[in-house]
């Protein structure tokens, strides 16, 4: 198989994996610790190959996630578009941050995502979530260095083959 085809399959495969891993059920006590996988993978690809990740792609992935998750249509699409817009806007700076600063930036982006979700759900008439609802962005930020290094290593290995 040609190198561009393998690269495209790897890109699409990781995004499909992210959306499907979002659907894995966890026991109720562990549910607040579940990171928002589509956002983490889109963040990685927006930082590493900004030419592939666009607002349209973020919107389509968000709509697919909305349909699969059964939430308000467009909720995740809007959140992912906002996140990808911010990352693409500041991509040249974020790419060269040390890992600890990049992790803090990812935490800020994930907290921004939670605030947007809170606003949307409040306008939809939902009750305010419990305090444990805010744990997920911190878990995602803690996983960021490991996810980034794993994805970067796998991407480099595929490029060398």
TrEMBL record:
BP terms from Gene Ontology: regulation of cell shape
This protein's GO CC annotations: plasma membrane
Keyword Membrane annotated: yes
Pfam family, one: MreD
Protein family according to the UniProt entry: Belongs to the MreD family.
Function: Involved in formation of the rod shape of the cell. May also contribute to regulation of formation of penicillin-binding proteins.
Name this polypeptide is given: Rod shape-determining protein MreD
Organism of derivation: Dyella telluris
Gene name of the record: mreD
